[in-house]
C-alpha cells in the first residue's frame, strides 16, 4: 500500500529518495526476501540452495554459514563465474531425465534469453566494511521455530469436492490466467497492458525490469503452481539485474552486485548501500523544499529489521529505529501524524492527515513491527495505539445511515470520505485488537468489523459491484463515489485484505461471502477494463483471496507478517533454548 498507487504523485523524502525510488527499493527488497524463502521451501533438497543457505554437513549442528557480501566467496569456497555454455549443457542434460510436461517448461525457460538480454553492465565496486560484510543465516534453526508448515497441513484435502476447495481452485485459475497472459505478452517487462497486449515499464520502477515476476513469486509458490514458480525463478536467476540506467535509481546502481548468485547477498548489499545513499547523499532537490510523505518514512521498517535478522548487522535496525524515534518526538497536532513533512526544516507541512493514501503503511508497520518481533518491540506498540487513539478521537465518524468511516483531516476541517487504500485499516485494527488494553479489545474488534462493513458497502453500492477509488459521505450519498475521476477500480487489494484478516480472526462466514462476490464479479468480466494489470494484483489481491479460502495454518499469522505488498516475513519466534533473537 505504498504511495506508488497515488497516480502522478512524486514527492521526495528527507533522506534523498523520491517516492518512485522509495517504492522501487521496497518492491525489490520484498521480492528478494520472498525469493529466498519461497525457493527454500519449494525446493528443500536443492543442492544449490543448500550450498547457499545451509551449513555443510561436516560442521557441528547450529554452526552458521558465513557468506561474504562484498562480491567474494569465503576462503576456500571461491566459486567461478557463471558459464552460460555449461549452464546450457546442464539444461539439455536435465531434459533427458524429465517428463514431457517438464520439458515444455524447460523449452520456455530457454526462450527467456530472447525476451531479455543476458548481458550485464559493468558495475563500480563498492567496498563493504567489516561489520557489514558477513551474512549469517541458520535456516534449519529457522525451520524449527516455525509453528506450522508454510503451506499448512491441507486438512481439507480429503474432501476434493468441498465448496471451499473449489472456490480456492477458482482463484488459482485466475492467477494462472493473469500469469499466462503476462508471460505471453509482457515477460520481463514490469507490468502487462491487457488492452494493447504488450508490456509496460513505468517510471516508478526506476528502470528495472520484471516487477510482476518478483511480485508473483510467493503467490505462485503459495498456490503450488510449481511450473510457473520455476519459470519465474529461472527468469530471476538468468535475467534479473539490479543494474539500472534510469535517473530515478542511478544513485544506487553502483551498489548492486551483478552476477552474485546469492539473492540474499544482493539483498544485504543493496540494503547497506541504500542506507548509505539515504543518509549521506548530496541531493540538490532538498533546497527546493520538496515534501516527503509519512508513508515513505515508515514503509521499510519490517524489511530492514528482517535484514538485521538475516545478516546480524545492526545498522539496518538502527536506521529505522532512528526514523521512528524522530517521528515520535516531533510535535503533532492533536497527536495526529500529518502526511507531509519538510526535509529542509524538519517540520510538518499542510497538516493533511489520512489513514489511506500518503499515510497508510506508516500505521500498518507499527503494529506489524510489534508482531514480527514476537511482541518485544514495545516502542512500535506504544506508537501504534497512541496513533490509533488520536485517529479515533478526531477522524472516526458514523454516517446518518450507520456506516463507520475514517475521514481525512485538513488543518482541522474534515473531508468526509475514504479512499480504497484506507480500507486496509479494518484488517489492521483487527490484527492489533488482541494486544490492546483489556477494556479496549472488544471495542477494537467491533470497530474493525464496522469499517470493513463500510468498505464492503462501497462495493455493493457501485454499478460494477467493485469498489471505487474513493467514496464519500454527505447528505446525498454514503459510501459512493461522487466524481467520475474516483469511480474506477484498478484491481486494488485493500478490501479483500481486510476480509482475510477478519475471517482468520473471527471465522464469521460473511467475510468469505463478501470475498466470493469479488471473485464472481471479476470472473464474469463485470469489472471495468483497466489499462494496466498492476503487479500488486498478483502479489496482493489474488493472494489475499486465496488465503481467505485456505485453512488458518496456511501462511499462519502465528508465523508470518505480511508487508505492505503482501510478501510474508517471518515472526521472530524464540529458539529452542527459550531465548528470543531479535534486532529490536
TrEMBL record:
Gene Ontology MF annotations: calcium ion binding; mannosyl-oligosaccharide 1,2-alpha-mannosidase activity
InterPro entries reported for this sequence: 6hp_glycosidase-like_sf, Glyco_hydro_47, Glycosyl_Hydrolase_47, Seven-hairpin_glycosidases
EC number: 3.2.1.-
Keyword RNA-binding among UniProt keywords: no
Parts of the chain that traverse the membrane: 23-43
Disulfides per UniProt: 423-455
Pathway: Protein modification; protein glycosylation
Record carries keyword Manganese: no
Signal peptide: none
Enzyme class: hydrolase
Top-level lineage group: Eukaryota
Keywords: Calcium, Disulfide bond, Glycosidase, Hydrolase, Membrane, Metal-binding, Transmembrane, Transmembrane helix
GO biological process annotation, one example: carbohydrate metabolic process
SUPFAM superfamilies: Seven-hairpin glycosidases
UniProt binding sites for Ca(2+): 564
Gene Ontology CC, one term: Golgi membrane
Swiss-Prot/TrEMBL cofactor(s): Ca(2+)
Family: Belongs to the glycosyl hydrolase 47 family.
PANTHER family: MANNOSYL-OLIGOSACCHARIDE 1,2-ALPHA-MANNOSIDASE IC, MANNOSYL-OLIGOSACCHARIDE ALPHA-1,2-MANNOSIDASE-RELATED
Protein name per Swiss-Prot or TrEMBL: alpha-1,2-Mannosidase
The species this protein was found in: Marmota marmota marmota
Gene for this chain: MAN1C1
Amino acid at each position: 500500500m505504498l504511495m506508488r498507487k497515488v497516480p502522478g504523485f512524486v514527492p521526495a523524502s528527507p533522506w534523498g529518495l523520491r517516492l518512485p525510488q522509495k517504492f522501487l527499493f521496497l518492491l525489490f527488497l520484498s521480492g528478494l526476501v520472498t525469493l529466498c524463502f519461497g525457493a527454500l521451501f519449494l525446493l528443500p533438497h536443492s543442492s544449490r540452495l543448500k550450498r547457499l543457505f545451509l551449513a555443510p554437513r561436516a560442521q557441528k549442528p547450529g554452526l552458521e554459514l558465513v557468506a561474504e557480501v562484498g562480491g567474494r566467496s569465503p576462503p576456500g569456497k571461491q566459486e567461478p563465474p557463471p558459464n552460460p555454455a555449461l549452464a546450457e549443457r546442464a539444461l539439455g542434460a536435465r531434459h533427458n531425465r524429465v517428463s514431457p510436461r517438464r520439458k515444455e517448461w524447460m523449452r520456455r525457460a530457454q526462450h527467456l534469453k530472447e525476451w531479455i538480454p543476458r548481458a550485464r553492465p559493468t558495475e563500480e565496486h563498492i567496498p563493504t566494511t567489516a561489520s557489514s560484510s558477513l551474512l549469517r543465516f541458520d535456516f534449519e534453526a529457522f525451520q524449527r521455530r516455525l509453528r506450522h508448515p508454510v503451506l499448512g497441513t491441507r486438512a481439507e484435502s480429503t474432501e476434493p469436492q468441498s465448496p471451499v476447495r473449489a472456490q480456492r481452485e477458482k482463484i488459482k485459475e485466475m492467477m494462472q490466467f493473469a500469469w499466462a497472459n503476462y508471460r505471453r505478452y509482457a515477460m520481463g517487462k514490469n507490468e502487462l497492458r491487457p488492452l494493447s497486449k504488450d508490456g509496460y515499464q513505468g517510471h516508478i520502477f526506476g528502470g528495472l525490469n520484471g516487477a510482476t515476476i518478483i511480485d508473483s513469486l510467493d503467490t505462485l509458490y503459495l498456490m503450488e503452481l510449481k511450473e510457473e514458480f520455476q519459470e519465474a525463478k529461472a527468469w530471476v536467476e538468468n535475467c534479473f539485474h539490479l543494474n539500472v540506467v534510469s535517473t530515478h535509481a542511478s544513485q544506487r546502481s553502483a551498489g548492486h552486485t551483478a552476477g552474485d548468485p546469492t539473492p540474499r547477498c544482493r539483498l544485504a548489499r543493496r540494503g547497506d548501500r541504500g542506507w548509505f545513499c539515504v543518509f549521506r547523499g548530496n541531493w540538490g532537490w532538498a533546497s527546493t523544499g520538496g515534501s516527503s510523505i509519512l508513508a515513505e518514512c515508515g514503509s521499510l521498517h519490517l524489511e530492514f529489521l528482517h535484514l538485521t535478522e538475516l545478516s546480524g548487522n545492526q545498522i539496518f535496525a538502527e536506521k529505522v529505529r532512528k526514523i521512528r524515534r524522530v517521528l515520535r518526538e516531533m510535535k503533532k497536532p492533536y497527536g495526529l501524524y500529518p502526511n507531509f513533512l519538510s526535509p529542509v526544516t524538519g517540520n510538518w507541512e499542510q497538516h493533511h492527515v489520512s489513514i489511506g493514501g500518503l499515510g497508510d503503511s506508516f500505521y500498518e508497520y507499527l503494529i506489524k513491527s510489534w508482531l514480527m518481533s514476537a511482541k518485544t518491540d514495545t516502542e512500535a506498540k506504544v506508537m501504534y495505539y497512541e496513533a490509533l487513539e488520536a485517529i479515533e478521537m478526531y477522524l472516526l465518524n458514523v454516517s446518518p445511515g450507520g456506516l463507520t468511516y475514517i475521514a481525512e483531516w485538513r488543518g482541522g476541517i474534515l473531508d468526509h470520505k475514504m479512499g480504497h487504500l484506507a480500507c486496509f485499516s479494518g484488517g489492521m485494527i483487527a490484527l492489533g485488537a488482541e494486544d490492546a488494553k483489556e477494556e479496549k479489545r472488544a471495542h477494537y474488534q467491533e470497530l474493525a468489523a464496522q469499517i470493513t462493513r463500510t468498505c464492503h458497502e462501497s462495493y455493493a453500492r457501485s454499478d460494477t459491484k467493485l469498489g471505487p477509488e474513493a467514496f464519500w459521505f454527505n447528505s446525498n450519498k454514503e459510501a459512493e463515489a461522487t466524481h467520475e475521476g474516483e469511480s474506477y477500480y484498478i484491481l486494488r487489494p485493500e478490501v479483500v485484505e481486510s476480509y482475510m484478516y477478519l475471517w482468520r480472526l473471527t471465522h464469521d462466514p460473511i467475510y468469505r461471502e463478501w470475498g466470493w462476490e469479488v471473485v464472481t464479479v471479476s470472473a464474469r468480466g463485470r469489472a471495468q477494463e483497466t489499462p494496466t494489470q498492476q503487479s500488486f494484483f498478483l502479489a496482493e489481491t489474488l493472494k489475499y483471496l486465496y488465503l481467505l479460502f485456505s485453512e488458518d495454518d496456511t501462511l499462519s499469522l502465528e508465523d508470518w507478517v505480511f508487508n505492505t505488498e503482501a510478501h510474508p516475513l517471518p515472526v521472530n519466534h524464540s529458539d529452542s533454548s527459550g531465548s528470543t533473537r531479535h534486532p529490536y
